[in-house]
Every structure is written in C-alpha cells, then in structure tokens.
Amino acid sequence: MDLSVQLGNQSCPNWFTGLKGLPQNFDLIIVGAGISGCVFAEQASRRYNLKSLIIDKRKHIGGNCYDFINRHGIRISQYGVHLFHTKFSRVWKYVNNFSDWTPYEHRVKGNIKIGAGYRMVPIPPSQDTINVLFGADVSNEIEMEEWLNSRRVPAEQPKNGEESALARSGEELYNAIFKHYTKKQWNKWPKELDASVLARIPVRTNTDDRYFTDPFQALPKEGYTKIFENMVLEDPNITIRLCIDYFDVRGDLPESNLLVFTGPIDSYYSSLGLPKLEYRSLKFEEEYHEPEDGYYQNCLQLNYPGEEVDYTRVVEYKHKPNQPKDVHRRKGTVIFKEYSCDEGEPYYPVPNPENRSLYGKYKEMAARESKVCFVGRLASYKYFNMDQAFLNALEMFDEYFSRSSSFPTH
Ligand code: UDP
C-alpha cells in the first residue's frame, strides 16, 4: 500500500494500527471519514469536548471528496470532480473555518455529435445551446421563451424525469442533452427516475452559462482533503483509524454512547435479509497526454450527452484554479473519462419510487435506534450535493444533541 501517495505530505502512522492500543471508551464512534463523519467529530469536540473515534475502510480521510497531487504534479479528485457551491450562509461560514477559498464559477460544455463532427454547447442549455444545435436565431429571453414554449410538452405535476425535462425543454433539447446522458448515468431512462434528478439541470432562457447560480461558489485553495485534515487531524479529542471495515470489527469496537453510521443504510441491516437499495457507482479511465499547448480540452468538464460514446463526461483537472502554482507551465495533462456502473463503491442513491419506498422501511428501523445515528448521502439515501451534506450533518448534530440525554455534558 503506497501511503505516501494517499496521504500527500501527511505522515500519520497511527491511522493504520488497527484497533490496537485504543482507549476502552469513546463518546462517539463514527463510521466513515467523509463530510458527515468529520462534521460530527469536529462539532462534538469543539462544542461539547467529546471524544470520537472515526474509522474508515479506505486508506484516506475525506470520503468521496478526497483529492491529492498525482505523480504529474496535478491535483486530482480520486472519486470524480467535486465543485463546491452553496446558498447556505451557515455552510459557507463553516467551511471557511477550515480552508481559504478561491472564487470559481463552474462552466460545463456539452460535446454534441452533429453529422460527422462535434459541436460544443453550454450546459445547462441556454440561448447559445439552441442556436448552435438547431440553427435557432434567438438573441433575447422573450425569443428563447417563445422557442421553448412552441416545443414544451406541458405537464402540471411531472411524475418522472422524462415528463419534467419535456415540460421544460421540449423534445429536441431533451433528446440532445438529457435522454441518453441519463440512460448512461443511471442505466435507466428518465421516465424511470424521479423528476428531481433531471431538474438539477435547469433550462435557461438567458445567456448565463454557469453550471450553478448559488451565491457562494469556490474551490479550497489547497484542495478538499486539506479541509478534512484541518477538521479532525490536530484535535486531541479525535482518533482516526483507517483501513478498517466496520463490519469486520463490529463486535470488537470500544464502548461508546453513540454510533454515527455514514455508510449505506442497507448494509447496516444486511443481516435482516431485506432487499438491497440501489446505488450507482462510477469508473474512471485515466489518460495522460502531452498536447502542444498543455491542455487536452478547453474546459474542466466536457459532457458527452449522446449515445455514440459510453462515458458521460471527460474531466481535465489541470483547468482547476486551485492547482499547485507551476501546473499550468507543465506540458503533461491527465484526463478522466467517467463511466457509470452498478458494481463498485456506492456513489449515488437512485431516486425513484421503488427505492424511496424501500428506503422508508430502513428509515423506520433507523428511527427506532436510540444509540445509532444515520447521517449522510448513503445513510439517508439522499442525492446531496457537498453543501447539503455539510448542512444536513450540522443540523442532525444540532438535533441529536439538543434532545439526547446520553451525554454527560447535558
Ligand atoms: N444530465 C443530463 N445531461 C447532462 C448533465 C446532466 O441529462 O449533460 C442529467 C442526468 O440525469 C444527471 C442529472 O442531470 O444524472 C444530474 O446531473 P449533475 O451534473 O448534477 O450530476 P452529478 O454531477 O451529481 O453527477
């Protein structure tokens, strides 16, 4: 195991000593060192001086936000591109405790196959998108509204992703941007998914080509991993042990007043034999290139919404402004082609009525637990963005500690 790569400049041998030598008692045992687990440990320590043990089966902290500098000197994200954006002042204030931030507004292009070639258009779709794709000639919001109105398929209360996208965009845009991308991403057609999934991508009548419109959009100056290090690393109340699978050590853990579980909720109850929840995973195909001008493509994220290729997007991290200083002078670049798949680490809950109803059963069991708290994207089975994961963890922490009598601090 090459720990130097995984840990960057940190060397923390204790992280890998298993459960040996640990105290017999912790206030919290936290399964998972991602956003939710680290928020709970940090808040428990700072607000109540409580001691936490965090375990994670991976060899790094930061969960799916984990990034590091690779052998070409480029900061990359191991689990796919992460962009922080939020409208929640509480979250923005909170994350500023752990990092300096560089303003960054994410812009995504879609590479759309037309005839023998490709055309690059803004995503979310806006005026330029339809002008380039369909030879429309709209130049203001009224004309764009008219163009869309003549194509939209009205649905008062869209029941699924297809109805919602057709109601907003009409058939041509739907086919070009949403339909096949969604099938590749979820292995389901939009009509098999909740309306909320495709509604993440608006259809704009103006020329705003930003992917997000939240008031706070930025990248951590030294990468996301540094945030987690600053949250939990130097705190004497927080003990971290990596490369430990909770299910291997369940019976051997020290005592605690609360277990915070941030893994997939169905894995916690797997012995009960209920059907498993669906999660979608990702695979990344890495390529190294030395293009003449140092860049493979002209943006960080280029989507491929068509069915002619199997990947959904190509990410070139060198475009991120929070790279080490000399990166832009280097000739080499790495790109990642992103494929979606069923097998592998769970990344995405799959929002549809079947999974929602099954999750409801797990949720009922979870509600009956007095000493276990289920927190985060996988445990709450919610398609959280990073900021929503921070907010959810902060609010769940408030909620739990405002009513719990299990802790001596109360
Ligand atoms: N989507 C699409 N075409 C695109 C981008 C997104 O159809 O070019 C749809 C697709 O269903 C996707 C969803 O919108 O799963 C949410 O996209 P987002 O970029 O928010 O996904 P994430 O970054 O979370 O993977």
Automatic annotation (TrEMBL):
One example GO MF annotation? UDP-galactopyranose mutase activity
Domain (UDP-galactopyranose mutase C-terminal): residue spans on this chain: 176-383
Q: Which PANTHER family match?
A: UDP-GALACTOPYRANOSE MUTASE
Q: Which Gene3D superfamilies match?
A: NAD(P)-binding Rossmann-like Domain (3.40.50.720)
Q: What is this protein called?
A: UDP-galactopyranose mutase
- Please indicate which superkingdom the organism of origin belongs to: Eukaryota
Which Pfam family, giving just one, matches this sequence? NAD_binding_8
